[in-house]
Design goal:
By secondary structure, this protein is of the alpha+beta class. Helix content is 21%, strand content 30%. It is built from four helices and nine strands.
Length: 235
């Protein structure tokens, strides 16, 4: 029996936290991270090694309550698309109204950040998800207005640097913004509506080290390509 000091093993890096939904989440959220998978592997095998999860391997969660939402949101991006922004350590998150996958990434200007894909349904007046195309149209227009015109609230502002309409699915737009509360952060987002489902693909600075100065325009084509692939997966 080994009587020496307790052995210490390095812990895997934390996966990016799934983005906080802009609207109230319903039900219990389930999170599946590559870091958790790696920690479990190390505990069982007694070793620490590298584990790479690709889009093809996926990170499927529990069967969604609504068939309109994918069980494996991480599969929405291809291997080459993830490689274009050095995406790694996927973290999948599931709630009644949404399926999300996030990665650590490094963008074309060298800025670190997060890549995120979210599929979500609109909520009704009781904040319950609904499969309703007209409700999705209304929520798309509300979010599109913020991405195109910006917003100026007491505690949260969105300054639009540039935006344009796209030709993906039913409706779509891409926007580059600076979001601010007490600090500012750069964000690029592609918003798509596919029937009753909204798809959001975004690149953003890490919340804890926001600068508002990241240039994400060089990554726009990758974000648009991912959004097209994600929308096609729903059709």
């Amino acid at each position: 029996m080994y009587d020496g000091p307790a052995q210490q093993f390095p812990q895997p890096p934390a996966a990016p936290a799934p983005p906080t939904p802009r609207r109230g989440s319903t039900g219990r959220t389930v999170v599946i991270t590559a870091a958790a998978t790696l920690a479990a592997y190390a505990a069982v095998a007694g070793v620490v090694g590298a584990v790479t999860l690709t889009a093809e391997e996926g990170m499927a969660g529990p069967e969604p309550e609504f068939a309109e939402l994918p069980a494996d949101p991480c599969a929405a991006a291809s291997r080459s698309q993830l490689g274009a922004v050095s995406a790694r350590m996927p973290s999948a998150s599931f709630a009644d109204e949404r399926s999300t996958c996030s990665w650590h990434a490094e963008f074309s200007d060298g800025s670190p950040g997060h890549l995120s894909i979210t599929f979500r349904l609109p909520l009704d007046s009781d904040r319950e998800p609904q499969v309703d195309e007209s409700a999705a149209e209304a929520e798309f227009e509300e979010r599109r207005s913020e991405l195109v015109d910006g917003s100026d609230g007491d505690y949260w502002t969105v300054e639009v640097l540039e935006s344009r309409e796209l030709d993906i699915a039913d409706e779509s737009v891409v926007s580059h913004v600076v979001e601010s509360d007490e600090e500012s952060g750069s964000r690029a987002e592609v918003l798509v509506r596919v029937g009753s489902v909204l798809v959001e693909v975004s690149a953003s600075e890490p919340w804890e080290v926001r600068t508002g100065r990241a240039d994400l325009t060089g990554d726009e084509d990758v974000l648009v390509d991912i959004a097209e692939r994600a929308a096609t997966s729903l059709e």
